[in-house]
Amino acid sequence: MIIKTSLSDARAMDLPPLRSGSVRIASIDVEWTKNYRIKNGQRPFCYSAVWLDLPTSGTADLSQVPFEWASFYVDEPDEMPHLIRHAAACVANSARMATIIAGHQFCADLSVLEANAPQDAVSTLQSAREQWRQRRDADPDTSHYVDTRYDAGHLLTGTSRRLVDVCTELGLDVTQPELLKKSMPAWHRMWLEDGQPEGRERVSVLNLRHSVSTAYVAALTAGLAKRPDTGLNVNRAIAEGAKGAWGWLETRTFTALLEDSCPSETAALSPSKAPKRPERRRTSTR
Fold first, then answer.
1. Which of 48, 91, 237, 263 could be a cystine partner for 71, CB 3.0 to 4.6 Å?
2. Rg for the chain, CA atoms, rounded
3. 23 CB neighbour count, 10 Å cutoff
């Protein structure tokens, strides 16, 4: 399994201790292949996690808050069970150390993980899905879930709940150049079939952007942070926080995003996060 991280030991999920007077947000995002012609045809192959510590007093400026992160990608298709075990442990570990566990339509991520999980990881994922379902009844001062697709409605006036649209409305620039030429599954096939690292790197950065931006939206949803009046370039945050992790971050295509605001309104979204059916408007618990 290919691991890129800011942690000292991401394989063991040895997270930094929570600073006194801080609230931790853990954000997790999973990517998977799709095949609707067979039962449980979705196969997870990549996930990332971001940990954002915010002060309990005052309202932090997101542009000034560093984050820890880890990214995991299968090196071979038969590593999927190992990836799922690790993702399940990451969810459980984050729930023990974070007040907020965030995802965007996280029920889908957990469902795909559980459907493919080896037996020793099933109960952990089932417990996480149950906590997600009960999130609106949870104590906001203890560990609980926030789903940025369904729980950020009090901040939004638009109808779309695509992550890219939610972020754009909240002033977070999440322009996604990775999807301009090929879809996420196509880039993944480039890695599996041709061994071309560009495909894996593009998907890894795309996936990490989802986790970072979801953490930011969760922080805004909970009233723990604000973004600068001029907006926040999430790509710049990734370039700084993940410097040296992937060659894709050094390409002209990516670095062109770092100077000014970019038109994320027109950016494509990973197919796994695209809306499938009209949803009922729900209110947030926060």
1. 48
2. 17
3. 20
